[in-house]
Amino acid sequence: MTDVSRPDLCVIGGGHAGLAVARRAVTRGMTVVVVEPGPLGSAGRLADRVPAAMLSAAGTRAQLLRAAGDFGLAAVEPKVSLRTLHNRMVALTRDMQRDDAEERCAALGIEVVSEAGRFTDRRTFTAGERIIKAGAFVLAPDPEPIVPDIAGLRQVPFFTARTIGGNTRKLSHLLVIGAGATGLAIAQAYKRLGSAVTVVEAARALHDHDPEFVAILLGQLREEGIDIREQTAISAIQKRGQGIGVILDEPGGEARLDISHILVAAGSVVDISALDIDKAGLRQDKGGQLVVGPGLRTGNRAIFAIGAAAGMPHASGIELAAEVVVENAQGGRRRLPPEFVPRSVGTDPMIAQLGLTEPMARARLKQNYRVVRCSFDEVDAARAAALSGNARLILDSGDTIVGATLVGRDIAELAALFSLAVANRLAIGQLANFAPPAGSLAEIVPLLAARAVEGRPAKKVRGGIARWLPLPGRIL
């Protein structure tokens, strides 16, 4: 018998993004149905993020052992057990899955429909025998890894970010296809855990990040022995009795590699074609991306999108996006500008990109901005701990902080502070009132504020400190 339900909200996709929306909606008193034919939560949050994070953490610890001599300790070459690391991943994943179990959702008042479905009109979604006529819908399907069309690739075994956590033995020579954030993080981790690593990128490594800070990171990765080849295509992959052969098309001509394993890290994509989105009145751009406004609302005002479906390939900002979706589904008009979503590269050194970059500021603000820089070498705590890095703030003509970019080790918490400053449009003067804990990397914050006022006639401004009138576009 056909069952018709009329919840306030229907979330299509039970991954990290979908469950974030569902949980926030029930706390606001909404009735919620989640449609997910697969396991709840695990695909996006656990299978993709946990292996990369744990591999990076293990690699960092291995590297600290090698560099211990700088601090008067015996430097040692670590003995690596990938099986032990894998077992820890499995245990952690099992614990985290309990938070996403169907029983947990039921206890919160979230109904789960474990069937695939599709739209039948602009306000109706059908899943199995269930017809759902919700007040609003949210598209939140998990992305799937992109497997590039390379001759011979599908004839050999390969890892993705979703499967490499299952590896339990040393990889003698790993080829990483794709120099994005995930590919570089795993490449560095495996190099530090004892593998030879080559990274091949058809375009520019981290092409969507600030080139100046990317150059600093790539220099460190190459110094550690990672072979990074940009502007290089893979012509063919050849299966052999032992190992794998790779033919490269480099700017200087053809080259060949002998490798043992492959990691495909060429990005991910959301396939929503099976949802019959045309019947729901949804539009896609020329690249196949769903057209979504700054309020995460699609062309159909009753349908929202979040996560990869909304062009948010990074896990950062999902909780904030969920809040925006739920508020707007209840009649709000909240916006989520793309620059409010932090972007990071989980390598060592880490890159954190918050708000506008300098190229973005130049295009958007013309000459009505300025740049303030500071090196970690100017902070005593960073020098004592041998933490090198750089920070850069973008200020608009009113001295509001509209962007920040950082590169360095152990910068996650510092990046969170600047993310708060960008999201709340703080003035540089307000950061001057911030008193960091003694001996912390956050001592760079008042240094940046002081740097912003050096050498200019004093004048009171928002934020409570004296500053000097900015010279548009000038770099300090």
Walk me through this protein's architecture.
The chain is of the alpha/beta class. It folds into three domains: 3-144 and 269-339, FAD/NAD(P)-binding domain (3-Layer(bba) Sandwich); 153-267, FAD/NAD(P)-binding domain; 349-468, Enolase-like, domain 1 (2-Layer Sandwich). The chain has helices at 16-27, 42-66, 82-97, 102-108, 181-192, 211-223, 318-329, 358-365, 380-384, 412-423, 428-432, 444-453, and strands at residues 3-5, 9-12, 32-35, 110-113, 117-121, 124-127, 130-132, 136-139, 144-145, 159-160, 173-177, 196-200, 227-229, 233-239, 244-250, 253-259, 261-264, 268-269, 303-305, 343-345, 350-355, 369-375, 389-396, 401-408, 458-460, 466-468. A five-stranded parallel beta sheet has the order 4-3-2-8-19. Strand 23 (389-396) and strand 24 form a beta hairpin. Helix 1 packs across helix 7. Residues 465-476 have low confidence and may be disordered.
Summary of the model, kept short:
The chain is of the alpha/beta class. The protein is 29% helix and 24% strand.
Task: Record the SSE blueprint.
Elements: E1 3-5, E2 9-12, H1 16-27, E3 32-35, H2 42-66, H3 82-97, H4 102-108, E4 110-113, E5 117-121, E6 124-127, E7 130-132, E8 136-139, E9 144-145, E10 159-160, E11 173-177, H5 181-192, E12 196-200, H6 211-223, E13 227-229, E14 233-239, E15 244-250, E16 253-259, E17 261-264, E18 268-269, E19 303-305, H7 318-329, E20 343-345, E21 350-355, H8 358-365, E22 369-375, H9 380-384, E23 389-396, E24 401-408, H10 412-423, H11 428-432, H12 444-453, E25 458-460, E26 466-468
Parallel strand pairs: 1-7, 2-3, 2-8, 3-4, 8-19, 10-17, 11-12, 11-17, 12-13
Antiparallel strand pairs: 5-6, 6-7, 9-18, 14-15, 15-16, 20-21, 21-24, 22-23, 23-24, 25-26
